[in-house]
Amino acid sequence: MFRRVAIIGGGAAAVALLSELVERASAPLHLDWYTGGAERPGRGVAYGTESPRHLLNVRAASMGMFSGSPRSFLDFAQRTDAGIAGTDFLPRRLYGQYLEGEAAHALARSRHRGVDVRVVPFAADAMVPEADGVTVVQGERATRVDAAVLAIGALPVRPLAGIDPGLLADGRYVIDPWALLARAAPDSAPREVALVGLGLTAMDVVLELAAQWPNARFVAFSRHGRLPEAHLPLATVPEDDGGALVDAMRDAPEAGRWLRLLREAIAATEDWRVVIDSLRPNTPSLWHALPAAERARFMRHARWAWERARHRLPPQVQQQVQALEQEGRLRRVCGRLVGAQPEQGRVRLELRRAGACTSLAADLAIQTVGLDTDVRSTAHPLMRQLVTNGHVTPDPFGLGCQATMDGQLCHDGKPWPRLFGIGSLLRGARWESTAMPEIRLQARLLAARMLAPAQVPQRPVTQPG
Ligand SMILES: Cc1cc2nc3c(=O)[nH]c(=O)nc-3n(C[C@H](O)[C@H](O)[C@H](O)COP(=O)(O)OP(=O)(O)OC[C@H]3O[C@@H](n4cnc5c(N)ncnc54)[C@H](O)[C@@H]3O)c2cc1C
Prior knowledge:
Layout: E1 4-8, H1 12-24, E2 29-34, H2 44-47, H3 72-80, H4 92-112, E3 115-120, E4 126-130, E5 133-138, E6 141-145, E7 147-150, H5 165-170, E8 173-174, H6 177-183, E9 191-196, H7 200-212, E10 216-222, H8 243-251, H9 255-267, H10 272-279, H11 283-289, H12 292-301, H13 303-310, H14 315-326, E11 330-334, E12 336-343, E13 346-353, E14 356-362, E15 364-367, H15 381-388, E16 408-411, E17 414-421, H16 427-430, H17 436-451
Parallel strand pairs: 1-2, 1-7, 2-3, 7-17, 8-15, 9-10, 9-15, 10-11
Antiparallel strand pairs: 4-5, 5-6, 12-13, 13-14, 16-17
The chain binds flavin-adenine dinucleotide.
């Protein structure tokens, strides 16, 4: 087993891994936990919100942070309100409280379990992986550990191309919606707000600002101009486990064939959501088997349709957004942003749709385009250092880093024996890797691997294609 492990990250993935390591350690273990300065470790962007309007998009019964007890969040929630059901979509701030509690619990338990945890309330600045260990640099201090895990979540948001720097500087074009929401206060001034994107983040933003700014009107746009899909009001138990579909997909790892198989399966089912959800446990292995050229095809032609089908709204959120549309406060437009310029104290947004250009004006534009995982062009200091020094290889589609299925990060086509990733950085290796049901499983497997008496022999990374 590894005797000294560094966990880099202050979000839910780091807490899940910390907890698993503390619970499973059977010999003295030292953990260096770099929390990145998070005020409330565990919460991250997703669960840092204090708004009651921001709901989990996974049902309560599936949000436990331990794969051995997936209902633990539901148990926590029911201690606050016995009427809560496992099928409910609960406020994310409640989940943040649960995570904070689990982090405190793991730290308290560590003292009784022979695990020495050093909490470093700063970001790790640089890392040097080697065959027999990893050096982690923070400020002036360099610490050698047996193994390190990058649990850094999504990368810092960047402005889309074509945004006038003056708009970014004076705050009329906002790239970090969460920072804006955290400081938004009630204000009755009339204003027009443009949302660049129509995904789940846009829905969070419009609901919150519509409540805080009762006289604001919103226009939101994306290529297809559609709202996200919603979950069914009640959870359904699928009639079959999707095994036949998964087998058929495995037999023909081609994006086009997969889409045809999916359409056929959906046509034979009462609700398409059941088919999409049945694939979830198998998505990483299916994605792994997809050759590089087919992955490229999937990214070009099916990525956004898949994201829309897979990442859905709680039904009550969809109803609230539809009510805003009916009241005339929210308007949707089709178009892709190509630029934004200042215009008489406002923002002029230029859109392109089917080759034609159009534009619209707003008092404020907010970019709501979802998670960034592209390490090739990030401003994240640690990832930039790791990429620049060739310690990790970016995924060719901008989905984190090249890695093995079990989270070893790769360089020059080879996995590092002692440098691992968890969560968003593994999207290229696993595709499905950003939500708690996947993260908790990764945390458990990583912890088991790190504490195993003999390390698994290295095998070369299999390159798709
Ligand atoms: C708005 C939103 C809503 C979501 N809702 C759900 C949901 O309902 N259900 C669900 O399952 N998933 C949801 N997700 C997915 C969510 O990403 C995961 O559930 C989970 O929060 C990911 O945790 P993480 O630790 O990987 O990343 P994060 O929560 O982003 O945490 C990463 C942490 O690492 C820190 N860090 C970064 N660099 C360094 C460094 N160099 N050194 C030290 N620390 C560093 C960051 O500051 C941050 O605190 C949502 C995501 C978002 C953005």
